[in-house]
Amino acid sequence: QVQLVESGGGSVQAGGSLRLSCAASGPTDCRYDMSWYRQAPGKEREFVSGINRYRSTSYADSVKGRFTFSQDNAKNTVYLQMNSLKPEDTAMYYCKTDRLYYGVIQVCGPPGRWGQGTQVTVSS
User: Fold this and answer.
1) pLDDT tens across 100-119, in order?
2) Rg (CA), the chain
3) DSSP class of residue 29?
């Protein structure tokens, strides 16, 4: 089944930028809508950005105007460009498969698979 690997996290000063990547590996003929979540220590995991049922991009209110979601279907990779970072953006960032819009579910796997996460730390 498809596996997800996040990368691009790191430590940055407030106001800086980072670009996160989430690459899917495994069967090649699998295409998912995907989304980004984050979880800070002691807090619940929260939605950040993703593709909604109308095929448009959704963003959490806290990141609108600062983060940009994009997808490269040929590479089976999604990205999260994060600008104007704030200390409150500090969290572990995860990607998740949502709707399987192309492929055989028995080969690709059902939606709802998570990556291992990549840490983002923003200092003031």
Assistant:
1) 989 999 999 999 999 999 99
2) 14
3) S
What is the rounded CA–CA span in Å between residue 67 and residue 47?
A: 13
Residue 77, beta-bridge partner list: 23, 72
Q: What's residue 42's pLDDT? A: 94
Confidence of residue 23 (pLDDT cuts 50, 70, 90): very high
Report residue 87 as tokens.
Answer: 């200390």
- pLDDT score, position 29: 85
Count of residues in the chain: 124
Distance CA 96, CA 34 (A): 6
Burial label for 17, CB within 10 Å (0-12, 13-18, 19+), is exposed
Distance CA 36, CA 96 (A): 6
- CB-based contacts of 111, cutoff 8 Å, min separation 6: 32, 97, 98, 99, 100
Q: 3-state SS of 89-124?
A: HCEEEEEEEEEEEECCHHHHCCCCCECCCEEEEEEC
